[in-house]
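haha ok so turns out i had the wrong file open the whole time. this is the CORRECT one, sorry everyone. sequence first:
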Amino acid sequence: MTRLSIALLAIVVAQAGGSNATLTAVPGIKVGHHTLTERPTGCTVILAEAGATAGVDVRGAAPATRETDLLSPVNIVQQIHAVVLSGGSAFGLDSAGGVMKYLEEKGIGFPFGGAHVPTVPGASLFDLPVGNPTIRPTADCGYQAAKGATAAAVQEGSVGAGAGATIGKTNGFEHAMKAGIGSAAIRMPGGLIVAALVAVNAAGDVIDPATGKVVAGVRAADGKGFADARVLLRTGVIPRSRPGENTTLGVVATNATLTKTQATRVAQMAHDGFARAISPSHTPVDGDIIFALATGAQSGGDVGQIGELAAEMIADAIVRAARQATSVPGFPALRDLPR
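then structure:
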């Protein structure tokens, strides 16, 4: 199936009543953001309160993660209850504690001795160069994001974990741009739903796979166009981003029934979406991660098809993140560039 046929199918399905084309198109998935506007930074919480089978694939070389080992198919935990994405680098991992508190208050998690222990993996991106780096997500940030999570269409742009996200840093921060959160979903005939949410904080440019053109990224010296990281690479410009100063975080979800091994395979295949829509991707200075969730509401499902669609939705979500972003001082967004 080509990207054009997938896009046309998505339009047909949307016209038939599927108006929510974001991660929450998957029943049982809720999303909430909490943004610390004074920096900005924040966190984004994906709730699966009834539980979801999950897998993860960590592809970047500078990850900041929490509880990802639990998602290995050989380990005992079979379902999770939330995924937390945050800014603030490793400091932002604290936000998961607030999500655990919220879920415990609702009686969600593994029951033990009168308490409940929810399973909440998470990952953080490095956004400390934006604003005051001493302001970063805390447990309260996670609690507020979980408390505000809904099944409504996901708010996109420079919110939550994407509030301080930037892109196009291979030629230095002075030529970089603002990015944020993007989301996309597709409903297939027969009821299969595959969706994605991405917090885009890449060293590289965002590329539209449909055209091969730069959507946003390294700005040209005159500020009126793009230098194109692919061109810079071929002309010998050395990437200037330092280790850990980037990271794109993704979550894909489906209503299909998957095992942990199958969910892990979907997460692995979904990384193709990063490679299609970010150039360069999976670099030594990125901590790229994708989580895959399966709610099991629909029996069966071809893992190869789900993985391919997950990669498509990841790529679409990345492009949307660049297009929906808003500027912050020092980092203009696409919508604010001279035309």
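The chain has one domain: 3-332.
again sry for the mixup
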